[in-house]
């Protein structure tokens, strides 16, 4: 632990001044991070008149949960006034398989690229990594043609495939950087004992992997849950993910804006990813920590 | 287990449909409708169409994709066409209809059109939009008027202002308001809003002939003419009438400023009315709708549904039914009452419409006869995507910088040439 | 840094088993690699080809030379977009890494409520800009947000009008983007800091090294893989910045804060200029390659010898 405070000689007037500065820094940045969330939250609790009267940043006069209820179960999205409820399930159906498959593939690839390095493994890794940079807007049209060709257009499996493919560069990056730091001696010893590729993965690497698996799953879950472009382009109507439904609810071209409902809907949409970060945040850092076993 | 049962039911359903189909040879009309009217009054308007469609035995498959006046929908539509299964009916407007028709992607509605006598009930400008090669490929839903000033009468009264009839009068009123410490113009600095002001000024100062020569025929001489310079001069003045915080503001927040009396006027299409009405304001009492100064001109914006080529008999039947309903008098009335626009077909009873809508109907007729009716550039009626975009780029750049009018007209001509 | 197993270090006694083992590794990598080859490189090739055609409404495939590129570079909006990408990307990556690193070091000093603070720093990564865009717009708008708030608190001279200033709007994008991702970078660094061997630090401390020296000279150099991961995560966000622009500035005032991804989208889908959109996409990718490939090359080469 890089904990300077526990070192001898750390007690001086300078130290308490330093602590004060430290907390000042931490708290003022905390304000920077929390402000937008407060704005969104407080707006969702206001009624429309209060918003129309102009002070967008002020706190609500009273907590009004009406817009939350409305956004969840009553708001009209297109012609069906069902709120966001049914679209939630669509997102779950799409996110879970995509996250799991891309994580498994990423783990295996990362393992093969580090512990069984073949000639050109680094080149392969670099080529996979470059996939991070392809803007999704670019792949939209060829992807549409490919999905049509594969007969997967407008299906959940098609959308899952898209998310797997463009998640792979990240999952490979995470696992590869994690496995690089696991001592090769472990693998060498197992090889001498006659263990094969999958045995080593199953017996040695996987038990060491939960931390990075958590990281990868959180990352992929967030990315896929929050996706709008692919969801909008490769699904239709009742099969749309919740982000697309949110967009349909919030974005009106020439209609009247209801900011309180918009904000409540936004928070409902973000709830799963927010919950994941808040609840799993601790494992997230711990997971990343366990990854760097080095001196 | 669940999926298996599901599959079985599906198969049974399929088999029975086939059998029934073979027995009666009767198509069940169905249509997948891709649109961007997803919330508030717009969604209610579509809901009305859906109910009508279903009451007539149709099966409606809803495919809403909202966002920035169809930005997101434009991407979705292309993916659908490229993946080989376009939706049956798609909300597209203006010259984009012709561009899609040119790719051969659109179907043919001429048979329905003839049976329903569309040639007699649609204004000629709309017929031009929805016909390609003499065939109906789309149906118009409504007509929005773009060249409106929405004004707060109390604020205008503070400086004893009458509604302006010329742009000079407009400037005089605005100067008075400025002197009184009131923001004359509520405006949101987004390219399409800048262009909305721009086109009302262009029509006002140049007239319909100039307008069409510049933006429809893309005549370089007209684009660089002195009249166009005057238009940009007026835009520079308009820039001075706007408050400092305008960039990026949504149009409805600007409407709110007029409502609260923080600003006197807003130049915006008649969808702004919905915002006033939603706040419980009455037309003619709490707010005024005044056409922007022009010589009897009218800038038209119209939404429409294009019918894509589909293969199954069900889909074809669905498209025909949908087209017939959309242009039916009943739907035209209900829909446009919800939407704040006026009917696309002529001769719909105007009793239920408010005074702004009635004025819009009367003016439309008059300016159509007087040859002063033009399609909107900002809203993609007069010009297709590329040309419209080029105009928007230059207008918004001029409005947000200190570019001279001379430089602006040069840039405009150049950008339009480059866009094709 | 430990040495990875290389082919040379293998015992050459069991050629068949070895052969199989190496090929198992290749076979395992193959599906991932094949997907990437097709869906990334294949699509880049497709886009590259389309950029040499006159494609408008739909892609067409008759070759038309470099016309689209000539047109592209004549458009002033495109120049603005590319400049913005460089300014935004550079600042965003730099600030997010510095801030993330700083916050991680600060949090690593045994502070109270670390869990709470960490969550507060980290949560923005969980939410997309579709959700927070409007809030940011309000906060940064002088007439609605911070400026108005400070004025109403009596600080009349406070001025913060970047959002509505053509020259400064691009920096508001940096503020919001840093807000979203610096917490994530902080988490990456914090995790790595926790993994640093405290014995080494103690030894250095007892040798009289100052706190800042210990961090700069001893700890940070061991965090190289974290810099690599952070760079990739941030760089990909910079290049793909699209939602952010749409939500915050809409590319304005004027077109002053437009980014290449927005330009490409606008051309391809709104203005029916698929060929031009493809050309702009290729230019974007070329720019990314110019920056990323040297970095990747140096990182991965060194790793081999490290």
Automatic annotation (TrEMBL), chain A:
Asked if Translocase is a keyword of the record, the answer is no
List the InterPro entries: MetI-like, MetI-like_sf
Please report the record's description of how this protein sits within the membrane: Multi-pass membrane protein
Q: Which domain of life is it from?
A: Bacteria
- Read off the Pfam families from this record: BPD_transp_1
Q: What does the UniProt entry say about where the protein is found?
A: Cell membrane
Q: Which residues form the ABC transmembrane type-1 domain?
A: 88-280
Name this protein carries in UniProt: Carbohydrate ABC transporter permease
Record the organism.
Answer: Kiloniella laminariae
Automatic annotation (TrEMBL), chain B:
Q: Which Gene3D superfamilies match?
A: Periplasmic binding protein-like II
List the InterPro entries. Answer: Bact_solute-bd_prot1, SBP
> Domain of life of the organism in this record?
Bacteria
The signal peptide annotation in the UniProt record is 1-27
User: Subcellular location, in the record's words?
Assistant: Periplasm
Q: Which residues form a coiled coil?
A: none
The record's keywords, sorted A to Z, are: Signal, Transport
Keyword Protein biosynthesis assigned to the entry: answer is: no
The function of this protein is:
Part of a binding-protein-dependent transport system for a sugar.
Give the UniProt family note.
Answer: Belongs to the bacterial solute-binding protein 1 family.
Name used for this protein in its record: Probable sugar-binding periplasmic protein
Q: Which organism is it from?
A: Kiloniella laminariae
């Amino acid at each position: 632990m890089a904990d300077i405070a526990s070192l001898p000689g750390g007690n001086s007037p300078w130290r308490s001044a330093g602590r004060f500065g430290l907390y000042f820094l931490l708290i003022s940045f905390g304000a920077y991070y929390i402000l937008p969330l407060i704005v969104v939250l407080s707006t969702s609790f206001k009624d429309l008149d209060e918003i129309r009267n102009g002070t967008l940043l002020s706190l609500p006069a009273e907590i009004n949960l009406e817009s939350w209820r409305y956004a969840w179960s009553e708001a009209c999205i297109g012609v069906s006034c069902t709120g966001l409820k049914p679209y939630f399930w669509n997102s779950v159906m799409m996110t879970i398989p995509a996250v799991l498959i891309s994580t498994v593939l990423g783990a295996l690839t990362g393992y093969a690229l580090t512990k069984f390095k073949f000639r050109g493994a680094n080149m392969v890794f670099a080529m996979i990594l470059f996939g991070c940079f392809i803007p999704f807007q670019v792949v939209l049209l060829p992807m549409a043609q490919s999905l049509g060709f594969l007969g997967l257009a407008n299906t959940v499996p098609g959308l899952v495939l898209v998310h797997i493919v463009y998640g792979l560069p990240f999952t490979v990056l995470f696992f590869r950087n994690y496995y690089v730091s696991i001592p090769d001696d472990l693998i060498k010893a197992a090889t001498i004992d006659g263990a094969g590729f999958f045995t080593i993965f199953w017996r040695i690497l996987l038990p060491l992997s939960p931390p990075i698996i958590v990281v990868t799953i959180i990352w992929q879950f967030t990315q896929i849950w929050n996706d709008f472009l692919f969801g909008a382009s490769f699904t239709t109507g009742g099969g749309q993910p919740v982000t697309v439904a949110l967009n349909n609810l919030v974005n009106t071209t020439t209609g009247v804006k209801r900011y309180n409902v918009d904000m409540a809907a936004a928070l409902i949409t973000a709830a799963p990813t927010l919950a994941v970060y808040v609840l799993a945040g601790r494992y997230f850092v711990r997971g990343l920590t366990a990854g760097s076993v080095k001196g | 287990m669940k999926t298996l049962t599901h599959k079985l039911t599906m198969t049974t359903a399929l088999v029975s449909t086939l059998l029934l189909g073979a027995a009666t040879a009767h198509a069940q009309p169905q249509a997948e409708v891709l649109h961007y009217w997803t919330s508030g009054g717009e969604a209610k308007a579509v809901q009305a169409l859906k109910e009508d469609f279903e009451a007539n035995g149709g099966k409606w498959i809803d495919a809403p994709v909202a966002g920035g006046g169809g930005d997101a929908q434009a991407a979705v539509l292309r993916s659908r066409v490229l993946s080989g299964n376009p939706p049956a009916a798609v909300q597209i407007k203006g010259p984009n209809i012709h561009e899609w028709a040119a790719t051969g992607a659109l179907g043919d509605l001429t048979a329905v059109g003839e049976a329903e006598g569309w040639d007699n009930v649609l204004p000629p400008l709309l017929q031009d939009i929805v016909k390609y090669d003499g065939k109906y490929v789309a149906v118009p839903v409504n007509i929005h008027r773009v060249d409106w000033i929405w004004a707060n009468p109390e604020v205008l009264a503070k400086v004893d202002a009458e509604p302006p009839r010329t742009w000079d009068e407009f400037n005089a009123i605005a100067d008075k308001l400025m002197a009184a410490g009131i923001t004359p113009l509520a405006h949101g600095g987004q390219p399409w809003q800048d262009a909305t002001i721009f086109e009302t000024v262009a029509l006002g100062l140049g007239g319909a002939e100039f307008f069409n020569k510049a933006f429809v025929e893309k005549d370089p001489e007209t684009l660089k003419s002195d009249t166009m310079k005057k238009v940009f001069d007026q835009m520079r003045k308009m820039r001075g009438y706007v408050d400092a915080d305008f960039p990026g503001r949504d149009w409805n927040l600007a409407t709110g400023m007029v409502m609260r009396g923080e600003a006197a006027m807003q130049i915006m299409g008649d969808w702004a009315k919905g915002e006033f009405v939603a706040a419980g304001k009455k037309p003619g009492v709490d707010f005024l709708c005044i056409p922007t100064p022009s010589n009897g001109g009218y800038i038209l914006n119209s939404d429409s549904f294009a019918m894509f080529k589909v293969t199954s008999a069900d889909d074809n039947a669905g498209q025909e039914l949908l087209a017939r309903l959309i242009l039916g008098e009943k739907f035209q009335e209900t829909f446009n009452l919800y939407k704040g626009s006026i009917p696309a077909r002529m001769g719909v009873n105007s009793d239920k419409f408010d005074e702004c809508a009635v004025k819009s109907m009367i003016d439309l007729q008059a300016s159509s006869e007087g040859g002063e009716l033009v399609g909107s550039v900002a809203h993609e009626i007069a010009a297709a995507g590329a040309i419209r975009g080029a105009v928007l780029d230059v207008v918004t750049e001029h409005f947000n910088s200190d570019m001279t009018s001379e430089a602006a007209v040069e840039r405009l001509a150049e950008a339009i040439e480059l866009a094709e | 840094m430990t040495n990875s197993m290389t082919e040379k270090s293998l015992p050459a006694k069991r050629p068949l088993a070895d052969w199989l083992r190496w090929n198992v590794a290749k076979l395992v990598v193959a599906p991932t690699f094949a997907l990437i080859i097709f869906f990334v490189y294949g699509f880049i090739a497709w886009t590259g080809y389309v950029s040499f055609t006159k494609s408008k409404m739909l892609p067409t495939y008759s070759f038309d030379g470099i016309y689209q590129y000539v047109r592209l570079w004549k458009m002033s909006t495109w120049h603005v977009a590319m400049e913005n990408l460089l300014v935004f990307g550079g600042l965003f990556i730099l600030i997010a890494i510095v801030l993330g690193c700083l916050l991680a070091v600060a949090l690593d000093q045994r502070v109270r409520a670390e869990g709470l603070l960490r969550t507060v720093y980290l949560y923005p990564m969980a939410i997309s800009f579709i959700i927070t865009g409007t809030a940011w717009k309000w906060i940064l708008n002088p007439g609605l947000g911070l400026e108005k708030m400070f004025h109403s608190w009596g600080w009349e001279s406070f001025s913060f009008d970047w959002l509505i200033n053509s020259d400064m709007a691009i920096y508001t994008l940096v503020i919001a983007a840093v807000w979203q991702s610096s917490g994530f970078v902080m988490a990456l660094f914090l995790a790595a800091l926790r993994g640093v061997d405290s014995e080494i630090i103690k030894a250095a401390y007892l040798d009289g090294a100052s706190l800042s020296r210990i961090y700069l000279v001893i700890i940070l150099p061991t965090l190289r893989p974290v810099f690599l991961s952070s760079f990739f995560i941030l760089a990909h966000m910079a290049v793909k910045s699209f939602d952010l622009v749409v939500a915050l500035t809409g590319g304005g005032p004027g077109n002053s804060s437009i980014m290449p991804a927005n330009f490409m989208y606008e051309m391809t889908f709104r203005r029916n200029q698929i060929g031009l959109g493809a050309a702009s996409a290729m230019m974007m990718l070329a720019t990314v390659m110019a920056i990323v490939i040297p970095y990747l090359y140096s990182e991965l080469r060194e790793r081999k010898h490290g």
